[in-house]
Amino acid sequence: MTAVLSPAPSVSPRALGAGTLQVERADIRFTNITADRVGIEIAVVNVGQEPSEPTVAMIRAAPLGVFVPWQPLSVARVPSLAPGASYPVRLEAGVSSRPALGRFGRVPPRRLLTALAGDDDPESGPAPPSGSLPESLPADLFRLLGQANPHWAGNLNIFVQGREVERHMAQALRVYPGRTNLAMFVVGAADDSYRFTLHGDGPGWETALYDLSAAAQFALERRSNLLQGEWIRLSGMGLIILAMKPPSDCEQGVIEVRVCQRSTGRHAMVEFSLDPRAVGPGCFVV
Asked: Residue 220 belongs to what domain range?
């Protein structure tokens, strides 16, 4: 591996209107309350000079990755906010009860992608009415491969007043110093090209990205590293492996995988929060 880290909807969007409400990526927070329930809190701020109008926020979810289809999760009311005021949108959601497909290494990557694609609801499907209990969150990639961690790993998106903000995150994953650790995420849903770059704050970490979309098994030595800065074509949903080897004396760190979609010019980022002392099995180790 090569050291490549650098410092680091039943509701129509038009009906949501325009205004001065703002959400930052870091304002989207989620954590497991129990093994089967995730608590979600999203801070909505009025950055304007006048009180905001009451509105609604649409919350959607997706499997861990970027440029993948969203499924409706909930619709929440946001009251009128004074200038500078913040309102916390809070909700709980269940974790997908889909059983594990098998242990890591025994499930072909293509079978995992097929399961994820079959678990998606259409983006245009109806959102739950405001105040109703949200549906289950999409399947967690780690859990599907028999590696259930204390925190659900996935994507959340909020759409409010014509603006949308996303967060894609796997948090508090245990890493094993001095060994090759593997994490994974999905990219895309149709034929397109993507460009990847890696960033992080962990000094001395060796990292690499692999495309295992068409692999018959999880075997990194048979797959080429994704060359950073080059356009990589994926014919549909792709399974990307983040391989990392932290130094033997590593502390906790963050690795960000930033992805650009060629057809739209849009950028998105997957965050991995890593800690050698985290609870749970954490990353896969080879």
From this structure: 16-285
